[in-house]
Design the sequence.
């Protein structure tokens, strides 16, 4: 397993697609900084939140590049070499996923480093917005969990479709649709007998990152939190636990079903 | 009992309704160069893909070095096997060195700094520098693919059309490489359309058509079956056979309306000698089969290819 991951990381970091992705990521970070500076809302903390949605700008570069990386293993035929070399398909698939995670988090660190670093330097870092550092910890955990899901989803489509165009389209459309689900459910459930939060919490891996102004959006939730920090932590703790678990169990579903299908399919 | 590096039993592979490999029982002896001969789409590549674990058999089984394909140890056995199936699998944007380093990493070869320059030298790619593999000629890519194969010191190599894209000197180099590696004990399965080249290296053959393995034969037995012969057409073959023996021919076989001589024959002299004995031959035909003729003969002529 270690050998496969080492090899995949070597290929990933040497390949031009990774370097282009890095440049695109930095470009997007610069664009977001410029836009927020233009409207006078440049603050390190708000930029941290604004910058990491899996269904928007930076978030969409991740699945695109993961799909390119995964599909290239099939189009170059290098996946064949690994099977011929005696690695099991389960290990190879896990290797793709873990390499994808390293790729995602490397990209994220660079992107957030640029965006938070520059905006904090210019506009400062307002930590009072979230009632303390503990919440930042929670928040980071569930957006990391969301990206674990994005990685599992991208590797799943890339490995099973083995076609760059088709896999990118499906992965991106899936993420955008998931990002819109909070709004769709809120509109569809006029009756109070359905609780949009409950439905979303267990069904939508990107639940917490619904940036569409609905009542369950993390931003609205944060805005509505009163001065009572004990209530804040109880409520946020429950929501955040769900927010972390939901993408993780969806990631597990995509990962294990992807591995199972991959194991029982021929490799061209 | 002969040791087989590969043995299959009733191996079959179906794609939809099409039976690509049909109940194949294949035997590749240890230390052999097994020439795999068949027309395009006959199932050669599919069999190689099945043996390498790239495709899953619909039915039947195979064993590599005596280890059954369903045994967990099969992954361990595969560490000693290398293969180029269809085309060398390379990362186009990486240089020859980096492609080899990538392969070393997944093979778990730690001393790659010593291994790679040697491997590049062996295939004549030591001066390619940082040039990306996508800018290599087909022959260079083929040689780089072979360098990748040799990294893990395999004991069995499967080569699917390895001579494709090689110039005459490249073909000769590859042939010598195969012969030298075979002398060191490496077994090969080679599919090739260049049968004249295959004849120079193969010790055994497997002939396949429409997914069915028609025949397996050693090169020695094939040479016997393909040897040069002269057919003499004559109504009384027993009489002709006696006269030929009297004339000093030893390797003779009588058929209903002819006699076949496997000894060297000078047709004109022979006909004159027989005429003197009152035997008038109605037709003389001299034939010699090569592997291609043998294969065509086996499948019933060119129209069946």
Sequence:
């Amino acid at each position: 397993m270690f050998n496969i991951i080492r090899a995949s990381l070597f290929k990933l970091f040497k390949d031009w697609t990774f370097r282009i992705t890095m440049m695109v990521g930095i470009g997007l970070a610069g664009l977001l900084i410029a836009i927020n500076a233009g409207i006078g809302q440049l603050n390190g903390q708000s930029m941290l939140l604004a910058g990491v949605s899996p269904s928007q700008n930076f978030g969409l570069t991740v699945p695109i590049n993961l799909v390119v990386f995964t599909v290239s293993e099939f189009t170059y035929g290098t996946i064949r070499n690994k099977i011929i070399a005696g690695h099991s398909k389960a290990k190879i698939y896990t290797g793709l996923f873990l390499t994808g995670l390293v790729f995602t988090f490397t990209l994220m660190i660079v992107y957030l480093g640029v965006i938070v670093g520059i905006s904090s330097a210019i506009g400062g870092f307002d930590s009072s917005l979230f009632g303390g550092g503990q919440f930042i910890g929670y928040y980071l955990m569930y957006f990391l969990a969301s990206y674990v899901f994005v990685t599992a989803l991208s590797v799943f489509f890339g490995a099973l479709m083995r076609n760059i165009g088709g896999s990118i389209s499906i992965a991106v459309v899936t993420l955008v649709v998931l990002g819109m689900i909070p709004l769709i459910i809120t509109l569809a459930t006029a009756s109070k007998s359905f609780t949009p939060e409950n439905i979303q919490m267990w069904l939508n891996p990107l639940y917490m990152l619904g940036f569409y102004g609905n009542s369950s959006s993390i931003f609205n939730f944060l805005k509505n939190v009163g001065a009572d920090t004990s209530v804040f932590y109880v409520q946020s703790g429950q929501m955040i636990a769900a927010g972390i678990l939901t993408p993780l169990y969806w990631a597990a579903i995509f990962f294990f079903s992807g591995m199972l299908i991959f194991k029982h399919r021929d490799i061209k | 009992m002969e040791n087989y590096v590969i043995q299959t039993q009733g191996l079959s592979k179906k794609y939809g309704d099409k039976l690509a490999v049909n109940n194949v029982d294949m035997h590749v002896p240890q230390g052999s160069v097994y020439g795999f001969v068949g027309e395009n789409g006959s199932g050669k590549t599919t069999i190689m893909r099945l043996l390498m674990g790239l495709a899953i058999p619909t039915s039947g089984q195979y064993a590599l070095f005596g280890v059954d394909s369903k045994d967990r140890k099969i992954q361990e056995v595969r560490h000693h096997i290398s293969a180029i199936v269809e085309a060398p699998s390379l990362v186009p944007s990486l240089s020859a060195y980096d492609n080899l380093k990538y392969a070393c990493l997944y093979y778990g070869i730690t001393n790659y700094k010593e291994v790679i320059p040697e491997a590049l030298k062996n295939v004549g790619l030591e001066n390619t520098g940082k040039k990306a593999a996508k800018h290599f000629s087909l022959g260079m890519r083929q040689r780089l693919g072979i360098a990748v194969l040799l990294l893990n010191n395999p004991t069995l190599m499967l080569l699917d059309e390895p001579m494709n894209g090689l110039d005459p000197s490249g073909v000769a180099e590859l042939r010598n490489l195969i012969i030298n590696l075979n002398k060191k004990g490496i077994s090969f399965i080679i599919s090739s359309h260049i049968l004249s080249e295959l004849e120079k290296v193969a010790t055994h053959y497997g002939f396949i058509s429409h997914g069915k393995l028609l025949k397996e034969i050693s090169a020695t037995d094939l040479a016997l079956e393909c040897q040069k012969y002269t057919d003499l057409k004559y109504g009384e073959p027993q009489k002709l056979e006696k006269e030929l023996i009297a004339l000093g021919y030893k390797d003779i076989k009588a058929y209903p309306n002819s006699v076949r001589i496997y000894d060297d024959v000078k047709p004109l002299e022979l006909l004159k000698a027989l005429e003197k004995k009152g035997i008038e031959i109605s037709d003389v035909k001299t034939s010699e089969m090569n592997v291609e003729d043998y294969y065509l003969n086996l499948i019933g002529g060119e129209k069946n290819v």
Chain B has a mean pLDDT of 87. The radius of gyration of chain B is 24 Å. The first strand of chain B starts at residue 4 and ends at 15. Chain B has two domains: 4-224, 227-288.
